[in-house]
Write a structure and sequence with these properties.
This protein is an alpha+beta fold and about 525 residues long. The protein is built from ten helices and 26 strands. It is globular. The protein starts with a helix and ends with a strand.
Length: about 525
């Protein structure tokens, strides 16, 4: 309807009592409102949309706290035009201290497969306009999906010459115009010992969201979010302090455009018509503790007897998904009738070894007494710590001949690209999926402080040798993000580098990969 008619109707409905519960607190809030505010001060964290559905999306904003701490009425509207001349959907919500004055709601009633503009109004002040995306209807056959994926957006990192790592990747992602950004965690970094209470967790999100380039990206590109450990504390798993875990989960759901049905479940499916099913995983909330780094080394003692504490990495009882989520994932993968299955995992699925100790064909002959896949693995608290579960999942795909499975991952701060096989040391084990892992959005730390680039490049060659033939690419130098273009015929992934210490940096493609539909081969292409 026309915007003016919408506002009149909203006022009339309020006078008639439909919105009385929200409008009553609004009058108190206006009396105790903060001093005269600008739009940026009224909505200090910007706004963001997320989780596209065929009829709408989730939209989010936080308003400035009123002086009297009373609830605040917040109006919202969505329109197909940026001048909001007509209103496709709108309404009123009441926000207060219990949600840290965040307005989050599921917009419904929109048309599928298109962009809309949306905004909020509080204290009589309008927010900037954001964009939301609706997904194609389930029966539709879209010819393309473009999404970016990223992780690890630390703030305040000092690099060489005292420079600060900037949020320039965010501007570059927006420039690539994806349908959404899949953020795979470490959206914030809390303090292990200093972020305990709910107010402390909330303050971390406010501090990160105060960055203007992050706000610009969120206004332009919808978010599909997962968490990693930065949102909790380093190395989080299911055995952590229950009260702190619950507090961290509450702060995340308050701050993210993701609905919570009361179970704190974040694994979910988003469909892009018949082109793709997007499956988001939770690899933290249900997982067993990581294998300690000093247990990753398999070796022989002086009496030539086996000492293998790392065998717990192969324990079939260990899980990163939990039984319920693993069952859900297997069902979704096998039941999917989409052309592609795109799985978001907070950390890499691909094996990542320093040394392959059971290799009998390489330059270093392995010990014949060692079990299949034994070796020295990177201390990365990823799927290598849950090898039996990984093998079972990939074997499930093999047995059902489910193809076109692409895992997009984060956490490592390094780029990886691999073929995934149930047994990665068996030349006859088929490729059933593909793993692409992105580097960090900001330098943490600056790799140039770790070693000269020539040394890092030599280490890349050593990693490829230790993980052959399944690992096709590793990069230890660049920061940035990854860009995925999906069509019915192919999935093309670009690794996009950005100099995070240059305020004027633009993204460049330094690696490009292609998976043809139905193929079991990861093609390495020349970058654009």
């Amino acid at each position: 309807m026309p915007r003016r008619d919408f506002l009149r109707g909203l006022a009339a409905a309020g006078a008639g009592g439909l919105f009385a519960a929200a409008l009553g607190p609004a009058q108190r809030a206006i009396a105790g409102r903060p001093r005269a505010l600008s739009a940026a001060e009224t909505f200090p964290d910007g706004l963001v949309a997320g989780d596209p559905q065929p009829d709408g999306a989730v939209i989010w904003a936080r308003v400035a706290r009123p002086d009297d701490a009373a609830p605040v009425a917040v109006a919202w509207m969505a329109s197909e035009s940026d001048d909001f001349a007509t209103v496709a959907a709108g309404g009123l919500v009441s926000v207060g201290a219990d949600s840290d004055w965040t307005a989050k709601l599921r917009v419904r009633g929109l048309l599928p497969d298109r962009w809309y503009f949306y905004r909020f109004t509080a204290y009589g002040i309008e927010s900037r306009a954001g964009r939301l995306r609706t997904a194609p209807r389930p029966s539709a056959a879209p010819d393309r999906l473009r999404y970016a994926f990223a992780s690890c957006q630390q703030r305040g990192i000092r690099g060489v010459d005292g420079l600060e790592s900037l949020y320039v990747t965010h501007r570059a992602i927006a420039a690539d115009a994806p349908d959404f950004l899949m953020h795979l965690g470490d959206y914030v970094y809390v303090s292990d010992g200093g972020t305990i209470t709910l107010d402390q967790y909330r303050e971390v999100y406010r501090r990160f969201r105060s960055n203007p380039l992050l706000q610009d990206l969120q206004a332009a590109v919808p978010l599909v979010a997962a968490w990693d450990d930065g949102e909790f504390y380093n190395g989080v798993d299911r055995t952590g302090p229950p009260a702190r875990l619950a507090t961290a989960r509450r702060a995340w759901f308050e701050a993210m455009p993701v609905e919570n049905d009361g179970s704190d479940r974040t694994y979910r499916r988003l469909a892009w018509g018949r082109l793709a099913d997007v499956l988001m995983l939770d690899t933290r909330q249900y997982r067993d503790p990581e294998v300690p780094a000093n247990a990753r080394f398999n070796f022989l003692d002086a009496q030539d007897s086996r000492v293998t504490p790392g065998e717990q990495m192969f324990d079939p009882a260990r899980t990163t998904l939990g039984a319920a989520q693993r069952g859900w994932l297997e069902t979704e993968l096998s039941a999917s009738r989409a052309a592609w299955r795109l799985v978001g995992s907070s950390y890499n699925v691909t094996p990542w070894r320093i040394r392959d100790e059971d290799d009998h064909t390489g330059l270093l002959t392995g010990d014949p007494r060692l079990a299949r896949n034994e070796g020295v693995y990177v201390s990365n608290e990823a799927w290598d710590d849950y090898q039996a579960e990984r093998r079972a999942l990939l074997r499930y795909l093999e047995q059902r001949d489910v193809r076109n499975n692409v895992f997009t991952c984060g956490h490592t701060h390094f780029y990886l690209a691999s073929e995934l096989q149930p047994d990665f040391d068996d030349a006859h084990s088929p490729t059933v999926a593909f793993d692409f892992t992105t580097g960090s959005q900001t330098a943490d730390p600056d790799p140039r402080e770790l070693a000269p680039e020539t040394i890092l490049r030599a280490a890349e060659i050593a990693f490829l040798r230790a993980n052959r033939p399944f690992m096709k690419w590793v990069d230890l130098v660049y920061q940035g993000f990854a860009l995925v273009d999906v069509t019915p015929e192919e999935c093309v992934v670009r690794f996009r580098g950005v100099d995070t210490f240059d305020p004027n940096a633009e993204a460049f493609t330094f690696a490009k990969f292609r998976v043809a539909s139905g193929s079991r081969v990861l093609e390495v292409l020349e970058p654009d």
